[in-house]
Design brief:
Rossmann fold, alpha/beta, globular, about 10% strand, 4 strands, 4-stranded parallel sheet
């Protein structure tokens, strides 16, 4: 992607920014940890360990057995339970269906097993060196707490922007408040790249 961007007219190789939205809040930081031509990173909303989001609804004393179960080749009873739980709300059903599509796995339990591998632990987050903006939405129903964990692990220049429900931006990745979110993101990019208007 960076190779292609550098072939385009008007692209400053010193000012390439990467933004990841939703699951991209994990993928973009991971890319920035290893691709040093990225000069600025936006994680919207930030994710440190995507697997943790999948385990939040599992009682802590059952997590070890749950992790072992999803790693089995066949787990029809667990698949049935995951589908039943997802059918209790349209948002949960969408999340399970979307995860299965994105991960390309044939069963719900295999999808969860794959999701558990997506983490920036083990020093990956600490390898990000470019200035990083982490966004957090007050009522993000999918990524609660993850922006804070990512922010804590960053050793690069970093900024956190929290969006609130009161300003209409409390939903996952500020859904419904794109103009507000984009204004703050572009202001941060201007400051980061030294492009802010001089008064």
């Amino acid at each position: 992607m960076v190779d292609f961007a550098l072939t385009l007219p008007g692209v400053d190789p010193e000012k390439i920014a990467l933004m990841g939205v939703s699951f991209g809040g994990y993928l973009a930081p991971r890319a920035a940890a290893f691709e040093k031509r990225i000069s600025a990173l936006v994680a919207n909303d930030g994710i440190y360990d995507f697997g943790v989001t999948q385990l939040a609804a599992i009682p802590s004393d059952q997590r070890e057995s749950y992790i072992a179960a999803v790693q089995q080749k066949d787990a029809p009873e667990l698949d049935r339970k995951i589908v039943e739980a997802s059918n209790k709300s349209p948002a949960a059903k969408w999340a399970v269906d979307q995860a299965g599509f994105v991960m390309g796995e044939p069963t719900p339990h295999a999808t969860v097993a794959k999701i558990l591998k997506f983490t920036l632990a083990g020093g990956i987050a600490e390898q990000i060196s470019c200035p990083t903006l982490v966004l957090d939405a007050e009522e993000d129903m999918y990524l609660k707490g993850q922006p804070d964990v990512l922010f804590e692990h960053l050793t690069c220049p970093k900024t956190m922007i929290r969006f609130t429900t009161a300003e209409g931006a409390g939903a996952h990745c500020q859904c419904g408040a794109d103009r507000l979110a984009n204004a703050r993101i572009f202001d941060w990019l201007d400051d980061t790249f030294g492009l802010a208007a001089k008064s």
